[in-house]
Automatic annotation (TrEMBL):
<dbReference type="Pfam" id="PF04397">
    <property type="entry name" value="LytTR"/>
</dbReference>
<feature type="domain" description="HTH LytTR-type">
    <location>
        <begin position="1"/>
        <end position="104"/>
    </location>
</feature>
<dbReference type="InterPro" id="IPR007492">
    <property type="entry name" value="LytTR_DNA-bd_dom"/>
</dbReference>
<protein>
    <submittedName>
        <fullName>LytR/AlgR family response regulator transcription factor</fullName>
    </submittedName>
</protein>
<dbReference type="InterPro" id="IPR046947">
    <property type="entry name" value="LytR-like"/>
</dbReference>
Length: 108
């Protein structure tokens, strides 16, 4: 069963298709898997983060980026490489929590 969450206006997304979300002031760009076109909505990253609380695989790695931890290709030299080729550097403040959650997800 697919669960869709509202992201702004009349748009909804399936969180399982999301690779990352990038916020810039009052806009958020959603990056999807499988070649689906990116979507930019007039909704803050914080508001979308609140709607993603039921999905533990999403983690806010910096002030402006949330990633789907199921879409991590590899981690090297404090950089997170996602399956779409994006490279994300976690903030110093959030890095410890991210690596702890990443390790616990990989053990399960």
């Amino acid at each position: 069963m697919e669960n869709f969450i509202p992201i702004g206006g009349r748009q909804t997304i399936n969180p399982q298709e999301v690779i990352s979300l990038k916020g810039e002031i009052n806009y958020t760009t959603v990056h999807f898997q499988q070649g689906k076109k990116n979507v930019t909505v007039a909704t803050t990253l914080k508001r979308i983060e609140e709607r993603l609380e039921d999905y533990p695989n999403f983690f806010r790695v910096s002030r402006s980026v949330i990633i789907n931890m199921n879409c991590i290709k590899r981690i090297k030299n404090n950089k997170i490489y996602l399956i779409n080729g994006e490279k994300v550097v976690p903030s110093r403040r959030r890095a410890k929590d991210f690596y702890g959650q990443f390790e616990s997800n990989n053990r399960a």
